[in-house]
Amino acid sequence: MSSRDFVYEKFREFYSSSSFKIPAPVGFSQREFAFLLFKERIMARHKGFASPPLLGSFIRQHVPSDVYYSCAYYETPEAEMDKKGWVGADLVFDIDADHIPTRCNKIHDSWVCSNKSCGFGGKGITPEACPICGGVKFDVKSWPCDVCIDTTRAEVRKLVDMLENDFGFAASEIHTFFSGHRGFHVQIENESIRDLDAMGRREIIDYVSGTGLAVFQKKTRQPKQKTGVKIFKLSDYGWHRRLKNGIRRFLLNATKDDLKEIGVKSRIDVILQNRERILQRCLEENRWDAVKGVGFETWIKIAEHIREVEAAKIDTVVTSDIHRLIRAENTLHGKTGLLKIKFPVSQLDEFDPFSEAVAFKEGTAKVLVSDAPEFRLAGQTFGPFQNKSVELPTAAAILLICKGRAEVVT
Ligand SMILES: [Zn+2]
Ligand SMILES: [Zn+2]
């Protein structure tokens, strides 16, 4: 039995079991569904279903490696793209370790240019274009680890804070999911955002990433003003609150190197020796030029750094796309065999995908692992492996096979 047949068989068993159920998204019959088919290796798109049981039987019959639905609502979801009749879309955010520099991606991620005459490769995040030949296709090897999850979790935390406190969504309107690979989806189905066009969604992206913040524009001093306002006047809400708290946290903990790293060149010792006094004068009394030699340039560098730290690193392409296909809840991810699952936003800190999203809980399989880092799944730790034959629990074997790091041994 080939490795692909093995995974197909396990996916088939999973979808045939009586416990399998896809929670229907709002406006179910208005959604386009799409499936990546194992055998044909093609994407079957433009499917519509009148009811969840019909979708369920399609999945059981075809056993796709991945199941998606449109964040959009259409009059005729089965029609061709320009004839579907777009009536609205959910607001979706994708936060994925593929796009965020983590301290682990240099360890477990690598890429090789697919251009046969080139073959150049490297470690870490895959570049947009090959630095040698300019090609844009790569064979990528990645891995989902705890550092990836905690890094993306921190971005979700910032995003949720903005959605709740700045945009005013209730926690019950913010749906948080583990993506099934190495990140999270945040989805809002609320009617108030449904008819936002791509431009409106880009405004939200700009807000979330802190792009175009007005505080960074240098103001000229008005004749009667004595101090301060010419740099920033920070209020207690939105990005101002974020900048204020961020500047305070940063300055109270900064070392000489931290300040140098963000480009502060002069008066570093003065800043470090007078942290509390500076914070009091600047943040509390708005007297930003009260410290001699610490002026506009310095504050802008510090604030730019805080903006970078506080921005939520979302995949901007996903949020602005009003036709986006998104993985369906409770379905398997073809690259891991893990489930996309929902968890309450209040559980964000504790949620553990490597136990909660495990789908295959029974049996074992013998695999030959080419290479894999040490990893944790369903309460057990495995590896590291290098050209090794091992018998592993089904979920671990499937993860390794789906990630291209192992083959079944028969
Ligand atoms: Zn190349
Ligand atoms: Zn990682």
Draw up the topology in text.
Elements: H1 3-16, E1 33-37, E2 43-47, H2 52-62, E3 64-70, E4 72-74, E5 86-89, E6 91-96, H3 105-108, E7 110-113, E8 121-123, E9 138-141, H4 146-166, E10 175-178, E11 183-188, H5 191-194, H6 198-209, H7 238-253, H8 256-261, H9 268-273, H10 275-284, H11 296-310, H12 316-320, E12 325-327, E13 341-343, H13 353-356, E14 364-372, E15 375-377, E16 380-382, E17 385-393, H14 394-402, E18 406-408
Antiparallel strand pairs: 1-2, 1-3, 3-12, 4-5, 6-11, 7-8, 7-9, 10-11, 10-13, 14-17, 14-18, 15-16
The structure holds zinc ion (ZN) (2 copies).
Relative strand content = 15-25%
Fraction in helix: 25-40%
Q: Kindly name the structural category.
A: alpha+beta
Can you count the beta strands? Answer: 18
CATH architecture name of the largest domain: Alpha-Beta Complex
Radius of gyration: 25 Å
What is the total number of structural domains? 4
Low-confidence stretches: none
Name of the CATH first level of the largest domain? Alpha Beta
Profile the largest sheet: 4 strands, antiparallel
Separation of termini? 7 Å
Q: Would you tell me the overall average pLDDT? A: 93
Q: Which superfamily, in CATH terms, is the homologous superfamily of the largest domain?
A: DNA primase, PRIM domain
Bound molecules: zinc ion
Strands of the largest sheet, in order across it?
2-1-3-12
Q: Kindly report the CATH topology of the largest domain.
A: DNA primase, PRIM domain
Task: Estimate the global geometry from the Cα principal axes.
Answer: globular
* Tally of helical segments: 14
